[in-house]
Amino acid sequence: MKLEDKWGSKVLEFGWTAVPTALFLLQKELELNPTQLNVLLNIILHWWGEDKPHPSQKSIAKRMGVSSKTVQRAVFSLEEKGLISKTRTIRDNPKYRGRNRYDLSPLIKKIEEYIPSIRQFYTK
Fold it and tell me: Do 60 and 40 form a contact (C-beta atoms < 8 A)?
């Protein structure tokens, strides 16, 4: 089934984001609380190509209806869990304007490690 058939063209007007099902299936194993998962999904939303995603924490907070501090804590905990790494940029940078750049390769590696353990429970 096409995405447009599922969601309709009006809903897809702003695009869509590909997220591996394994991320949802492994929430418990990755020790992701709802806020951390939501922040992670908001970071993934900004991963469009070769460049690392770099959304502002303020914009994530606004979309989630929480404070920037809540987003900062979630990002810190995602780093502590070894799921993401972040690189700070300077405000004078014309492209990133002081926003963090997020590397999701640690998350990918962690998900890959869990695939054998969930395969037996979630097979097509």
Answer: no
Residues 24, 18: contact at Cβ < 8 Å? no
CA 81, CA 34: separation in Å to the nearest integer? Answer: 15
pTM: 0.90
The residues, any chain, with a CB within 8 Å of residue 31's CB and separated by 6 or more, are 81
The DSSP result for 20-33, as a single string, is: -HHHHHTTTTTT--
Q: What are phi and psi of 65, to 5 degrees?
A: 75, 35
Q: Of all residues in the chain, what percent carry a pLDDT higher than 90?
A: 76
Q: Would residue 8 be called left, alpha or beta, if left means φ above 0 and alpha means ψ between -120 and 50 degrees? A: left
